[in-house]
Amino acid sequence: MRRHSIQSIIGILLLLSGLMMLPPALVSYLYQDQTHSAFLKSFAIQILLGGMLYLPVRQAQYDLRLRDGFLVVAVSWLTLCIGGSIPFLLLDNINISVVDAFFETVSGLTTTGATVLTQIDDLPRGIQFYRQQTQWFGGMGIIVLAVAVLPMLRVGGMQLFRAETPGPMKDSKLTPRITETAKALWLIYLGLTVACALAYWLAGMSGFDAISHAFSTVSIGGFSTHDSSIAWFNSPLIESIAMVFMVISGMNFALHFIAWRNATTLPYRQDAEVKVYLTLLLFAGVVVSAGLYLTSTFGSVGESMRYGLFQAVSFLTTTGYTTAPSYLWPGTLPVILMMMATIGGCAGSTGGGMKVMRVMMLYRQSVREIHHLIHPNATIPTKMGGKTISGKVMYAVWGFFFLYMASFAILSLLVTTTGVDPITAFSTVGASLANLGPAMGEAGENYASINDAAKVILAFAMLLGRLEIFTLLVLFTPAFWRD
Hints:
By secondary structure, the protein is an all-alpha fold. Helix content is 64%, strand content 1%. Strands 1-2 form a two-stranded antiparallel sheet. Helix 9 crosses helix 12, helix 14 runs antiparallel to helix 16 (333-343) and helix 18 (391-417) runs antiparallel to helix 20. The longest helix is centred in the last third of the chain and has 27 residues, at 391-417. It is globular, with a radius of gyration of 22 Å. The N and C termini lie close together (8 Å).
């Protein structure tokens, strides 16, 4: 392991984490809510620690191997989650334990959206803004941000990018250099955020709420400045804007880049994953809306469509916004929504879940096996977008699927052993792995009543889902630590 290079990167990321304390400190100062001192203290602590790690090894110029990239990503996320917990612990306005502070920070940075905080409407503006900001920075990944804005890293940026970027398509570059790729992604990400904030503001949100919700919409995070989430605004227009940007953010950002660079919508129209993604959104919206109407949950077809479609989009994209307590809906509707979240958004998006691309590959491989039973001597390739999928890729997808389901089963059992009832355990683990947030049972409203041991397990599940299983689990194999 290139210890000095890894130490250098972690030091720089702590410095970045410290700088993240300045915007909420400014917001706190502007609103005079008396929380800016906690953010400034957190800024000082992290700048000091980051400087102590970075300065002694700032001349290190060793190139990182892919294996080093996995370790840096995992350690960096853990470090940033711990560092991000500091302001919560320094705040006098809220009484929060160390575990709860860590859980809230992990949920924010992984864009999960599960919260242990209550009475969010009454929280100081600085805290509200900080929660939203963590999701925005976590949306495209702290590591990608570092590679984009800190070319002085002078290490193998591609190794970091491949280890952190969500989705199965990790080897493709949009531009020749990884720094330019990361910058391009962040410019698109920033542009979508500005457009979303402006749309929210024009639809009637205050400037503060518009910016805050744009952060969590484009990042597909789901945090809100209100306990009742988007339902607080009671505005079909705001809900429509949220759905549009959730759908856009759930698509592969590589497509956004190509479409923007060539000024054409052709990449979207030709992409097989986008077609399936939009079909799933429409299917889930129709099924949930029909279920709501047939069970008389809402009084009219219009209301059923309004709430059913929004929740379907929110869950499939793994955003986690709510306009109604869907965990209380009758029949199998909550289960259908959770299943949609397990699929998640497109590869290369800020969404969670297994990704539409992987589900498509699994489906097509399964169909191939059925056909092969009928025609055992036939050569039947598995194709995506007109291209044959290699056996290596399919093995990786099946391996991911197995590890995802095994992780779900094992972590659910561990959560039940802490005393959590089975429905709550299974739904919270599923929501955490998918980086969704909303769950069923005791966690239907929030995660405040969950015990500390379960929260630690769920925080691990969030990181596992955000780093797409392999990146984190590879660290637990003996072979990884052998030279």
